[in-house]
């Protein structure tokens, strides 16, 4: 079975996510993804290499045609990923602490796009983090008006713990606007961070 995805004009990480979804839906066959920039091409190539998929890349007038071939040996892995119950989905022993509603430094507008993309991508990859802890301005992501609520709800449905700092919600007067996850305190946050084998701060 062969599929074609026209991902021209789409921002990162959408070309890669759409390619991965198409491959996950196949037991055997190939996916052709068409992109119009080097970054998307490189991201998809790296993904294919990481999964040990055979692939080819052709360029025509600035457009890249990436053909990825999935062999039958990946069928068992695909069934495992798609059919497991949410509580059984693989999770890493990773606690991510998010202290801003944007990612990186420089442009906050760009940073908000990146943060939204990061949280969306977490819903599409395995293993997932064990816990997401939101502190300071990061609590805005869990409250009404956040563009990431749908993705955070998906993560919570899949068993990822979502915690927002109660002191931070009070400071920003957002406690009544919390839409996903639970309210936590510094003692519990420190416990989660200390017990985690891996932590990440954004």
Automatic annotation (TrEMBL):
Gene3D superfamilies: TusA-like domain
A Pfam family of this chain: DsrE
Taxonomy, superkingdom: Bacteria
Residue stretches in coiled coil: none
Limits of the UPF0033 domain: 5-29
Similarity section: Belongs to the sulfur carrier protein TusA family.
PANTHER family to which the protein is assigned, alphabetical: SULFUR CARRIER PROTEIN YEDF-RELATED
Name the record gives this protein: Sulfurtransferase-like selenium metabolism protein YedF
Source species of the chain: Anoxynatronum sibiricum
Upper lineage: Bacteria, Bacillati, Bacillota, Clostridia, Eubacteriales
Gene that this polypeptide is encoded by: yedF
């Amino acid at each position: 079975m062969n599929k074609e995805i026209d991902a021209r004009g789409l921002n990162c990480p959408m070309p890669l996510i759409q390619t991965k979804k198409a491959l996950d839906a196949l037991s055997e066959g190939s996916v052709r993804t068409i992109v119009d920039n080097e970054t998307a091409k490189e991201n998809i190539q790296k993904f294919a290499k990481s999964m040990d998929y055979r692939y080819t890349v052709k360029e025509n007038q600035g457009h890249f045609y990436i053909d990825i071939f999935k062999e039958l040996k990946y069928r068992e892995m695909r069934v495992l990923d798609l059919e497991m119950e949410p509580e059984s989905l693989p999770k890493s022993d990773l606690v991510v602490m998010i202290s801003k509603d944007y990612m990186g430094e420089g442009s906050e507008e760009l940073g908000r796009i990146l943060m939204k993309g990061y949280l969306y991508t977490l819903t599409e990859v395995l293993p997932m983090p064990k816990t997401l802890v939101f502190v300071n301005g990061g609590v805005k992501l869990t409250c009404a008006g956040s563009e990431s609520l749908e993705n955070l709800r998906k993560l919570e449905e899949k068993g990822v713990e979502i915690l927002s700092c109660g002191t931070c919600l009070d400071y920003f007067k957002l406690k009544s606007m919390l839409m996903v996850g639970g309210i936590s305190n510094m003692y519990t946050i420190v416990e989660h961070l200390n017990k985690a084998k891996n932590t990440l701060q954004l």
